Amino acid sequence: MALYGWHPGERTIRQKMDIDKDPSLNWLYTSVEGDLPPDHERPPKYTTLSFNVKVWDGDPFVNNVRESGDDEMLMAGIGVEFSTRRRNKFAGKITKRKGHGDGYKFEVHVNEAIGNCPKYIPLRELVPYQGSPMTVFDKHHLPDNDELPHSQAVISFIQSCDTTFFGTTYAATEDDASWFPSHLGMNIRGGRPGFVRVRPSDKRTLVLPDFSGNRIMTSFGNVEATPLASLTLVSFTTGDVLYVTGRAQNHIGPDAQKIMFLQDRLTTIHVTGYIFVRDALPVRQRPGTSVQRSSYRPPVRYRVEEPAPVLRFDDDSPTTATLKSIVLHSSTIATLTWKSSVELKIISGQAIILDFSGFIGHPGYQHMAPRNPTSVNDDRIRTWTKPGNAATGQFSLARKIVEVQPALLEDMSPLSLTIPIVSVTGDFTLPRASKRWALFAGGIGVTPFLSMLGGVVGDGWDIVLMLSTREPDVLLPLIGEREGVAVHIFSDEAVPDSSNVTAHQGCLTSTYLVDR
Hints:
Blueprint: H1 8-16, H2 23-26, E1 48-54, H3 60-68, E2 73-81, E3 86-100, E4 103-114, E5 126-128, E6 134-139, H4 154-158, E7 163-170, E8 183-190, E9 197-198, E10 205-209, H5 218-225, E11 228-234, E12 241-252, H6 254-257, E13 265-278, E14 283-285, E15 310-312, E16 320-328, E17 333-340, E18 351-355, H7 357-360, E19 381-385, E20 394-400, E21 418-425, E22 436-442, H8 447-454, E23 462-468, H9 472-479, E24 485-491, E25 501-505, H10 510-515
Helix pairs in contact: 1-5
């Protein structure tokens, strides 16, 4: 993997992340695999890769070859089989090259190789495709006051991608060059569409979150030593490719959370140049197939300055919630009432984000968790719907409770169960432009509507709530009888009598809606 151990940048970032004392990671570079599995193509030598490639208009490789002249070129790459998530990255230097036009042949002497973490790569079935590449933008040097164009969909393209290739460099000092030679790095990062964010204020700084991985930290280490990076973002449906380069900086812990909400590790890239090429990728996702998203992928995290529907609280004066009581409605559904340390301004339909890490502890590191993939990035942050309409220091939360029967329900105050409130969030609220609405819900998914209905005050409301549930006897009392609200229950179970409720046997169907 590495040459003679961790280079200075890798050592620094590992100290910042407090993983430098882990013996399972300290000596990874001493492990040598004796042979390649039989399904790998065998190169002329174990340390040599031969390439015969065709480049397209706008491919940065052409300019790099031209500017390097007869000098040796550093190179890094990654091979990915998107249908299986097989992957292997390598680094070295180009020792032989020749070519002209759109064809090049070259050999790479490989001195670093590793199979990096695959768990965030979306699975795709790809097929060859003959595109017609066209360079839309080609700005190698972006002026200080310029920004990435949004009107031509560059920014929206970035925030629609679920895959990016992360290029880094390590420029060795004279004292370190003999032990830690200069080299490049290439990695693949995957997530939900939009996991790479763009800073709204300058429209050119990209934020790349780092998720839980194998903790080798080669990309982070390179950035720590040499603050430069590149991103290559691709669309497997249109074939569009965006190359960006820029000044990079790592951010850890509180520093990272000041940039991206609830994110502990990230890299920012202040773009200094970019190339955007349409219809360039020589493969496409097979028509009629769908993307299989990774089960490990965390939710999209937004920049703090983005206009996301979140009310955040000041870290210097933490806002907390103390559990006051629990009312069990069934063996799996309960209402929890909390008292907040400050008055909360909550719009009907919004939710509370609570931090349970101090209550149940931070999770230990685990690389993979096949039985519970989301636990790998579990930050103990939970979002619960507020069903009531109180805008005071007391609020209630409805949540599924699995196999839990609290003994002290009526007054939980003596237990002093106090946890931080991270924020109030949600833009799924009842609009005020009209008082006529049809609401559809299934099971416990009715909780946002409980909050909305709590805000229905006064005359003129005409709301129809259609609820499909196996527990009408539990959910109907929570909805209650409200003037101007008609409830239609679709269930195979007995429905309690109520003046505003109409019972229907079975599930809600499209036929029922068409007939109405």
